[in-house]
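Morning, I've got a small favour to ask if you have a moment. It would help a lot if you went through both lines with me. I owe you a coffee for this, so here goes:
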Amino acid sequence: MKKARNIKVGDVVQFPAYEFAKYRSGWNGWMFRAAIVDRLYTSKSGKPCAEITYCSGVAGRYQLLPNKEVKTRVLLDNLFQFNVPFCEKKYREMRECEKSGEQVCWDEDTALLLNHGIIKEF
């Protein structure tokens, strides 16, 4: 993963949402989520931070929207680049499968990007 550089409000980034394996070192053992930067600020200790919005849940197992969004604050050092074109390609493939009659389990990252208009619904 590459660190996000020159972060602006409205950028799509990924951040470590929760740790699932405490005994692993580094970022190995963390679950990363897509997020949208809402606000940039400096903390009281002088470290650059961001307030981000991410999706914590979708409407149902086979239903994409409406989704539940949560705001949180993170250090800019903990933000990484997110591959939006790959996610859009994956969304289009899954949408085609859904149109052909298969049930698709949607993820929270796709719901967030679709809800904010970063991925266009077709």
Observations:
- Residues 73 and 106 are 25 Å apart (CA to CA).
- Residues 12-115 form one domain.
- The first helix runs from residue 84 to 99.
- The chain has one domain: 12-115.
